[in-house]
Structure formats: structure tokens, C-alpha cells
Amino acid sequence: MVHRNAPLTETGRLRLARCVVEDGWPVRRAAERFQVSHTTAARWARRYRQLGVTGMSDRSSRPHHQPRRTTAAIEEEVLRLRREHRIGPLRLAVRCGIAASTAHRILVRHGLPPLAALDRATGDPVRRYERARPGELVHIDVKKLGRIPDGGGHKTLGRADGHRSRTNGAGWAYLHTALDDHSRIAYTEDLPDETAPTCAAFLVRATAYFASLGIRIERVLTDNAWAYSKNTWRNTCRDLDISPRWT
User: Fold this and answer.
1) pLDDT over 70 (residue 154)
2) Are 36 and 8 in contact (CB under 8 A)?
3) How far, in Å, CA of 43 to CA of 3, rounded?
4) In degrees rounded to 5, what are phi and psi of residue 128?
5) 177 has which bridge partners?
6) What residue numbers bound the domain in which 52 lies?
7) Is 150 in the same domain as 206?
8) What separation, in Å, do the N-terminal and C-terminal C-alpha atoms of the chain show?
9) What pTM, to 2 d.p., does this model score?
10) pLDDT band for position 153 (50/70/90)?
């Protein structure tokens, strides 16, 4: 991959090198023609003489010799302490006598996930979606977001104008989302409120959407919000042959 700041692509380097090596151009003339420095032109000409076309690619910037690199014994100790005690880079650094950033790089290099992604009891990665088949369980929730009116909100217009009623485009956006526990397919609508009739109507449309994908919703999981505790929600679930569940 060509470095983002490279003045020449691999094709341009090859053209420059061939002008010097095969056509006999002076290095300074080639540098002027391709608008690079004399040293850059000389470098690509030298690599072409040595390696041919394959030498036109960027080389790794990793140094050939790293005398201060962490030893294999310390890396093994970091990995052992992480497996046995499930501690983070700061505590690993103290126990192993290295910098916390070094401990973090060792963990990343060996593909170990952050502690937040592990089950503290077993040390296994946490799997948040585990249902066996699509539609077995669908999560439904509402995210309420403040709308920013044309011209900006209160930080631009001041609190008196920025917090006016919905007549200036302010108010709230209610994002209703249904997420399948197995496939992680999501269906979202921007609706005007989160009342029981609105939530029930969203469930009907979400059920139709998943059905169009060949997925029949068997259960829905919601929180204990007012709209999901009303008979409107329960009756809609019954009519759709869906079993409601609450967190």
C-alpha cells in the first residue's frame, strides 16, 4: 500500500526508475520531470536496479533491530497473569515492572479482549446474542432524541428561542427499534411519541417487516415502560401470536 503522503504512486515510481535505468536520464532531470527531490529519484532508481518492479512498493517501517523490545519471558508472564487473575493493563504493569501501555500492547498483540467484554466469573467472552434461530426473541425499545431546529438549538439561539415549543422544529424524536436476538437484524421507525397505541402499531409493522424476510416473531422483550404494560400492547401481542416478555 502506498503511503498517504507519497508523491508518487507505484506506477509513477516505475516510470521514473525506467527513465533513469533503462533510458539513461540523469537523476536530476528525472527528479524535475516527476516533481520529486533528487534523493527520492535516486532511491527509486537504486531499488529498481536491485529488485526490479517488486522494489517499487513501500517497505515496512518496522526497525530491523529492537534492543528494547519486551522479552518473550515478560510477555508470557503478562499473559499468564491475565489468564489466571483477569486483571487489566495497570495492574499487570505493576506486577511485571513494565509500562501500562506496554502491557496493553501485549494484550492487543495476542488478541485478548478488554475485561469489559469478558464474563468475570468464567473469563469467557460475553455473548449478548445467543438465541438459536431468528424470531425466537426480538428486543424492542424506544430511544428519545432531542430535535435541533433550523438555525441551531439553545447554544446558538439562546435559551429563550432555542427551547421554544415544537413550532420551530424542536421537540423530540422517538426512535422505536426492534432487534432480532439471533440475526441482529434491526427495524427502526421515527415516530411522534411513545404512547401505547403508537408502540402497538409499531409492533404490527415490525412483525410484517420481519415476515417479509421469512422471520416469524415468537417473543418480544421490552422494559417495563407504561406503554408496554397496557392492555393495548398485550392484546396486540395476542393477535399476532407473539409472547410478550419484560425485563
Assistant:
1) no
2) yes
3) 16
4) -85, -15
5) 141, 188
6) 10-56
7) yes
8) 49
9) 0.50
10) low
